[in-house]
Design a protein that fits this description.
It is a single chain. The chain is α/β, with parallel strands linked by helices. Helices cover about 60% and strands about 10% of the residues. The protein contains 26 helices and ten strands. The strands form two sheets. Strands 6-7-8-3-9-10 form a six-stranded mixed sheet, with helices on both faces. A four-stranded antiparallel sheet has the order 2-1-4-5, covered by helices on one side. The two termini are about 55 Å apart. The chain binds adenosine-5'-diphosphate (ADP). Adenosine-5'-diphosphate (ADP) binds next to α17.
Length: about 650
């Protein structure tokens, strides 16, 4: 590899290595985990109940078998009473059968409740996105945040998904600890007989303290080592995410049919190969995570496993010596050893889970930053008076607007009024502020300065959804869904088919509709139906126009509605425009002036300002005006 390239890579990797995430304090970690738990619990209480009951059951039931086996072995090694043995074997069989049956039923319940867990978690985000102010949804930062949340979840399993698992582990740890402790009590209370000689020293209460102290020390050190290993992944989540993104991009580029021609013409496969064969990439054999696995992560995990065996060895010697000295039978040796190990693994799981919850907390924080993004647009409560259906008047009073994060004004000091039933055209060059004007009118954004009034009332005072309901808009970059044609037009499952058919014909889709075998039930695109139809850009525009008409809102806004139509279809829309729009107030946006001539009132925007207003004839008379300039510059192409 050329020296320069390898230097570039090394510096990239260095940057990633230094990009460590700070862990939150235990207090903060507890707060975020609690919040996340409550958030999920409120939505899916049954899922948690079933899970908790299963975990407790699974943690406690093994002790029944351990206890009964110990009793059987003791009996065999001791008095060998056939009646007692028979009873013990029957208890063992029945309890095993009963436990298996209940376990199966409980698991079924839990699996049922946990099915679709992924979607349940995703629903939390989807709902937030649906309710979010448009200003936030339109902000690249929001998408970056959501994408990071998803990558954390899909790549490392961090986030809400982990909360249920951690909660289960915590409960399971506590119960195996309690179960183990209950069985272990007699290990200390059953004393070595006085005639056992030197071994009577085992009766010294100091042994209890020493065993408990060693157990705590071992589990604490073991889990601390484990957490230390886990924290490498948590703190390098950004590197992990970037690695996933790069892999997701380069790794699958060859799969994308639409990119295939460009890939071949411009030999983009070389870039992919370079990435895919780069051993120093995030997941490569010389990458950051491979180095961790060979280095600190591997060492910490190995040390944690090794240290646990000290405890196992120590306890086994203690238990065996006590049995040898006659404190209890041989059957109890396995029981006590297993019970002490359970306590040990309970404590280890407990500490390990607490550590994992702390590692997860910074990912939860990001999730709550997203979920708690404030909604400021939905604070008005005033209803929009339906009796005034056709008597609305809109006024922009000295409205200026900057997009969030932008220094430039997209609209400057716009003042204008328009009333019901008008045909308003909004023209201007690309970037002059036409779409922004519409977005403010529909309250997708609120003005930075100035105020917009509906019948004299600031539109922020109205109930947000009620206000929005008075507009029907075909945005420039509208989207149709892969549902049936009728559902697209009616925007609901149970739509009025007669009305949907009528508005489609009005919008010029009649002839095409007649050719569709399944009529309104025809699916658009092939996502959900093999019989789905592909539609052209022009046909999509007609369907979108029909959708605005179906909504039957008093204001209809069409942003470049004929851009994808052929000239004949476009002229059809113009000549039928009055018929199509009826007595609604219509706002028609275009950068092609010829398409606005039929509107009696034309607003001319230039660099965010409303520079002229009038009819085509009036504006043409202002020969030093923007409209005249635009008209002439465009007219030469039509004439030609
Ligand atoms: P038009 O509809 O006349 O083509 P727009 O209203 O879309 O113009 O854009 C007006 C100005 O606002 C342009 O300078 C454009 O770059 C800017 N703009 C549009 N949308 C955004 C956005 N989401 N964020 C930042 N700036 C934007």
């Amino acid at each position: 590899m050329p020296k320069k390239k390898s230097q570039e890579k090394t510096s990239q990797n260095k940057k990633l290595n230094n990009d460590e995430k700070e862990l939150l304090s235990y207090k903060e970690a507890f707060r975020f985990n609690r919040k996340a738990f409550l958030l999920l619990y409120k939505r899916y209480p049954q899922m948690f109940t079933s899970s908790i009951i299963c975990v407790i059951w699974d943690a406690l039931t093994p002790y029944v078998g351990i206890y009964l086996s110990a009793r059987i072995i003791d009996e065999i090694a001791g008095s060998r009473n056939p009646e007692t043995l028979k009873r013990l074997v029957l208890y063992t069989l029945f309890s095993a059968a009963f436990i298996s049956l209940v376990t199966a039923l409980l698991s079924k319940w839990r699996n049922n409740q946990e099915s679709g867990m992924y979607f349940k978690v995703q629903q939390v985000f989807t709902q937030k996105l649906m309710e979010m102010d448009f200003v936030n949804i339109d902000d690249a930062k929001t998408h970056e945040m959501l994408s990071t949340i998803n990558q954390n979840q899909n790549g490392g399993g961090w986030g809400l998904y982990r909360v249920t698992g951690n909660m289960n582990n915590l409960i399971s740890a506590v119960f195996s600890l309690l179960g183990g402790a209950a069985l272990t009590v007699t290990l200390f209370t059953q004393l070595v007989p006085e005639d056992a000689g030197k071994l009577t020293v085992l009766n010294n209460p100091l042994f209890v303290l020493v065993i408990i102290a060693v157990m705590l020390a071992v589990t604490y050190i073991g889990s601390a080592l484990n957490n230390k290993a886990g924290s490498y992944y948590a703190r390098r989540a950004d590197a992990h995410n970037l690695g996933n993104r790069l892999f997701g991009f380069y790794g699958w580029l060859g799969y994308q049919q639409e990119l295939a021609p460009d890939m071949r013409i411009y030999r983009q496969d070389i870039i992919c190969d370079r990435y895919n064969s780069d051993k120093t990439s995030t997941f490569g054999s010389k990458g950051i995570f491979a180095r961790y696995a060979r280095g600190p992560i591997g060492l910490y995990n190995a040390a944690s496993a090794a240290i646990a065996w000290f405890l196992v060895g120590g306890v086994t010697v203690f238990v065996c010596l006590k049995a040898l000295a006659g404190a209890f039978g041989v059957g109890s040796v396995t029981m006590y050893s297993t019970a002490v190990l359970s306590i040990n693994s309970g404590i280890a799981t407990f500490f390990g889970t607490v550590g994992d919850m702390r590692n997860n907390a910074s990912f939860l924080k990001l999730i709550f930053d997203f979920l708690e993004m404030p909604n400021t647009m939905r604070q008005g409560f005033r209803p929009v008076d339906k009796r005034d259906h056709w008597n609305y008047e809109i006024e922009f009073r000295d409205v200026s607007f900057k997009y969030p994060g932008s220094e430039e004004y997209a609209l400057k000091h716009v003042s204008m009024k328009f009333g019901a039933g008008e045909r308003l055209a909004v023209v201007g060059q690309n970037g002059s502020g036409k779409t922004t004007f519409i977005k403010l009118l529909c309250r997708l954004y609120d003005p930075t300065e100035g105020v917009i009034l509906l019948n004299g009332t600031d539109i922020r005072e109205f109930d947000y959804l009620e206000y929005m309901a008075i507009f029907s808009v075909v945005f420039q970059d509208f989207r149709l869904f892969a549902f049936s044609l009728g559902q697209n037009v009616g925007t609901k499952v149970a739509y009025d088919s007669e009305l949907a058919g009528n508005v489609l014909r009005k919008a010029g889709f009649g002839e095409r509709l007649d050719t569709l075998e399944d009529g309104l039930e025809t699916y658009l695109y092939k996502d959900f139906s093999k019989k789905g139809v592909e539609i052209s850009g022009g046909e999509a525009q007609k369907i979108a126009l029909a959708r605005t008409l179906y909504k039957d809102a008093p204001f209809i806004v069409l942003d470049e509605p004929t851009a994808a139509l052929d000239p004949i279809a476009e002229s059809e829309v113009y000549s039928n425009f009055n018929d199509i729009v009826g007595d609604k107030t219509a706002i028609y946006i275009s950068h092609r002036l010829s398409s606005c001539r039929f509107c009696n009132d034309i607003l001319v925007f230039h660099e965010g300002e409303l520079v002229q207003r009038g009819s085509h004839e009036e504006l043409c008379k202002e020969t030093d005006g923007k409209y005249y300039e635009l008209w002439n510059s465009q007219a030469q192409y039509y004439n030609a």
